[in-house]
């Protein structure tokens, strides 16, 4: 969204700000008291020591995140005295989450947004003697310039007279959530959420079976958070307003995310029926692998579900999509390809509109995952779960997949496209 005139821009900002602040005010009203009183959104006591210290800490933090990102590319430029991003957080939060910056990890924010993106710092609210909440509005430059990323609240704890630390919103809200523990998985959800215990039991059973097959006796505890919709999910993580809240379908569009560092899963309604992310945790714990291969995505989707739909549905959609796109050769890539000038996927580079590659997916489906689900099913039919796990262990990089397929399934790379298409035609409606 690009805003043309300055005054239109300001009006939109005011609207968003008013909304953000209204939420909090409305929440504070007692039940039955409908008339909300709105504070002037532009009145903030910027002279207070707390405000100044917290605002400065936020700026220092953003610089620190940005510097850390730069260090990855220019390791020799390390400034010895610079403060590391994690040191801005309460120790308890680092222990709980690994990296407690759930905003950075969940909201398509990048260190670039922290370092260079536009921002409107809204203010600091005092909750009690030691708890503050700072609120800010961030813009991102993706997919187009100056997109609203969200209005974010980050709790701040005053540790001593001159020291403050960030705290996570989720840690504050967790005690208000309901929970159900099944084996080594604990499900957390708001009191308004209709928890499906049967689906959750089945999910843990599937996860247990996978853990047994890969030889992991005592998997690490998992926390599985469930929310009614995306708006609620984001709010528990600290986003008062996100760009999805005002898009009807975006708000309810199912969404899931796993934080592998801390074995936590966040999902919208229905997530308790999916073992997908838990299987990723099991594989990571057993193999020590940091990055999942695409084949691993297929394995997690095949056994643990993908996009809250049955594997038959995912594979039927793939079958249809391949029929509509005969120009795609899965022997060139199982994951991504170019697009032609009409936006169709093409594996032949001479038909490509640019050299940029796109993962096989559209708004409705992630075909790259479905392709891997088919490879997983073909493997399971040939040699059971044991063969699936053997291949999973051997495919450490995506470009090794064709040779592993040839070794265990006996399909040469130039026959893979035909084999997958024929398998789908034979086995799926
Ligand atoms: Zn996955």
List the helices and strands and how they pair.
Blueprint lengths: L5 H23 L20 H25 L17 H7 L4 H5 L4 H6 L2 E8 L4 E10 L6 E14 L2 E4 L2 H5 L4 E5 L2 E5 L7 H18 L7 E6 L2 H8 L1 E4 L5 H5 L3 E4 L4 E5 L7 H12 L6 H11 L6 H14 L11 E4 L5 E2 L11 E2 L7 H28 L6 H9 L3 H15 L2
Parallel strand pairs: 6-7, 7-10
Antiparallel strand pairs: 1-2, 2-3, 3-4, 3-8, 5-6, 9-10, 11-12, 11-13
Zinc ion binds next to helix 10 and helix 11.
What would you say this structure looks like, in words?
With 429 residues, this protein is of the alpha+beta class. It folds into four domains: 1-43; 47-169, Nuclear Transport Factor 2, Chain: A (Roll); 177-290, Zincin-like, CATH 3.30.2010; 311-427, no CATH class. The protein has 15 helices and 13 strands. The protein has helices at 6-28, 49-73, 91-97, 102-106, 111-116, 169-173, 197-214, 230-237, 248-252, 276-287, 294-304, 311-324, 367-394, 401-409, 413-427, and strands spanning 119-126, 131-140, 147-160, 163-166, 178-182, 185-189, 222-227, 239-242, 256-259, 264-268, 336-339, 345-346, 358-359. The strands form three sheets. Strands 1, 2, 3, 4 and 8 form a five-stranded antiparallel sheet that branches. A five-stranded mixed sheet has the order 5-6-7-10-9. A hairpin with a 5-residue loop joins β11 (336-339) and β12 (345-346). α7 runs parallel beside α10, α10 (276-287) packs across α11 (294-304) and α13 (367-394) crosses α14 (401-409). The protein is globular and about 70 Å long. The relative contact order is 0.07.
């Amino acid at each position: 969204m690009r805003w043309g005139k300055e005054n239109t821009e300001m009006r939109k900002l005011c609207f968003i700000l008013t909304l953000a602040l209204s939420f909090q005010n409305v929440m504070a009203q007692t039940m039955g008291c409908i008339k909300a009183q709105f504070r002037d959104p532009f009145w903030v006591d910027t002279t207070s020591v707390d405000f100044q210290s917290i605002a400065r800490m936020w700026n220092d933090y953003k610089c620190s995140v940005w510097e850390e990102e730069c260090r990855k590319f220019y390791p020799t430029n390390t400034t010895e005295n610079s403060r590391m991003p994690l040191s801005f957080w309460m120790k308890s939060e680092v222990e709980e989450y690994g990296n407690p910056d759930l905003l950075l990890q969940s909201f398509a924010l990048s260190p670039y947004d922290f370092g260079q993106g536009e921002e409107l710092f809204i203010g600091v609210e005092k909750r009690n003697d030691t708890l503050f909440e700072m609120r800010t509005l961030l813009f991102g430059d993706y997919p187009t310039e100056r997109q609203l990323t969200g209005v974010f609240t980050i709790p701040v704890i005053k540790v001593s007279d001159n020291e403050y630390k960030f705290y996570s919103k989720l840690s504050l809200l967790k005690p208000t959530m309901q929970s159900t523990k099944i084996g080594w998985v604990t499900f957390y959800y708001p009191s308004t959420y209709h928890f499906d215990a049967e689906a959750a039991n089945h999910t843990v059973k599937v996860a247990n079976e996978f853990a047994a097959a890969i030889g992991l006796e005592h998997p690490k505890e998992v926390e599985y958070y469930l929310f009614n919709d995306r708006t609620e999910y984001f709010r528990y993580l600290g986003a008062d307003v996100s760009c999805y809240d005002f898009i009807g379908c975006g708000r309810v569009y199912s969404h899931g995310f796993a934080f592998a560092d801390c074995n936590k899963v966040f999902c919208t309604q229905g997530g308790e029926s999916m073992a997908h992310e838990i299987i990723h945790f099991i594989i990571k714990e057993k193999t020590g692998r940091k990055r999942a291969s695409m084949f691993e995505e297929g394995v997690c989707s095949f056994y643990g579900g993908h996009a809250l739909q049955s594997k038959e549905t995912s594979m039927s959609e793939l079958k249809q999509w391949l029929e509509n796109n005969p120009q795609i050769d899965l022997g060139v890539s199982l994951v991504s390809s170019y697009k032609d000038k009409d936006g169709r996927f093409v594996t032949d580079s001479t038909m490509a509109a640019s050299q940029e590659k796109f993962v096989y997916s559209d708004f409705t489906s992630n075909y790259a995952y479905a392709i891997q689900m088919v490879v997983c099913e073909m493997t399971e039919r040939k040699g059971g779960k044991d063969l699936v796990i053997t291949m999973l262990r051997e495919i450490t990089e995506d470009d090794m997949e064709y040779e592993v397929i040839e070794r265990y399934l006996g399909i040469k790379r130039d026959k893979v496209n035909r084999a997958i298409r024929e398998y789908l035609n034979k086995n799926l409606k």
